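worker-03 picked up job from queue 'complexes'. Input manifest follows; two sequence lines, order preserved.
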Amino acid sequence: MSALSRFARTKNFFRKYWLTLSTPSKFFSLGFLTIGGFVAGILFWGGFNTALELTNTETFCTGCHEMRDNVFAELQPTIHYTNRSGVRATCPDCHVPHNWTSKIARKMQASKEVWGTIFGTINTREKFVDKRLELAQHEWTRLKTNNSLECRNCHNLDSMDFTRQSKRAVDMHSPSLGKDGKAGEKTCIDCHKGIAHRLPDIKSAEIKAATADVEAGK
Amino acid sequence: MKKIFALLFTCTALSAAAQVTDGHPDNHPKGLRGTTPLDKEPVSPLMPKMVNDDIRKGRAFAMQPPVIPHQIENYQVDKNFNKCMTCHGRDRVPDSQAPMVSVTHFMDRDNNFRSEISPRRYFCTQCHIPQMDVKAPVENTFIDAEKAAAIKKSAKK
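worker-03 finished. Artifact:
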C-alpha cells in the first residue's frame, strides 16, 4: 500500500465525520437539539463536578494505604486534626487549591499520582520514606509560590490578633508577615513546615545539594 | 479472774493493733489509682496547661539544665529533624533571638568542639523540660551548695 493511498483513506475517514457534523439535522428538531443539548450540558457539567468533588474528600485520599498509613496517620495527633474546638482541616483543604482554575491545574498534575498508585511508587513504608523529601519539596514549592494560599484560606492575617498570641509568636509574626499594611518578607510555609506531617531529613539534603554544587564547580 | 481479764485485754489490744497496721484502708499507700476499686475506672484529673510565658526561670543549682519556658507540644525531635534547633541552633539565633544552646553541647565525647550539637546532646528533652501550670503536691526543701555551706558555717560559730 502506497503512502498516498493511506493518506487518502485517512482523509476520507475524517471527511465522513465532518460531513455528518456540518450537514443540518434531518430527523431532530431545532428545539430538541437546543434543549436536549442544554440538558445534556447540565448533566455532563454536574456529573463532572460531582466526580471532581468526590476525589476532593478525605475518604477518597485515605482510600489508599499509602496515604492512610503514612501521612494521614501523622496528621492525627497534630492540631490540624485534633484540637479543643473541633474545627479541623481535611486533606484537600491544604493540598488542593480552592478556586476552580488552580484546582483543575492541580487535578491534572494529580494524574501523575494515579500513575504512582498503579505502579506502586510509594507502596511500602521504605519507598515512601525514600521519596518523602521530594514529595514534601513539591508541596513547599507550591505553597511558597502561591504565598501560602491554602493556609490563608483559613488563617486570615487581618483577623489575627497579635495581642492574643504568645510573645514569641508576635516577635516572629509581626516582622515576617508584615504590619501596618506592609507585606512581610516571609510566607507561612517558610517557618511552618512539618506542622501537619513529620519532616524528612532536610539538613542532610541541603548539605548533599551544596556538596553537589561544589563538585560541579559552581 | 484476773488472769482472764488480762488475757481478754491483750487480745483486744492485739486485734486493734492489727487493724491499725493492716486492715485500715486509709493507712495504705494509694498510688496513682487512688481509692478506686480495681474493677472501676478512675476519673482522670484535669490536664494542666504548659507554661508558655517565655520568662526564663532561675536554676536551683549551677549545673541544672534550664527549664523550657514555652510550649513544646508536637515538636519533632527525631533522626530526621530537631525542631528545637530551628530557634536555638547556632545559625538560627540571629533570626529567632532565642538563647543559643550552650557550647558544651557542641562537644563530642573526646571534648572536641564541633560546629553544631553533638549526637549525644541531640535529644533536648532528656535534660530540658517544659513546666506545667500546677501547684506542687509536695513542698520542695532543696537547698543549693552555696546556701548549705553558709548554714554549715553559721552552725560552726
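worker-03 released lock.
The radius of gyration of chain A is 26 Å.
Chain A has twelve helices and no strands.
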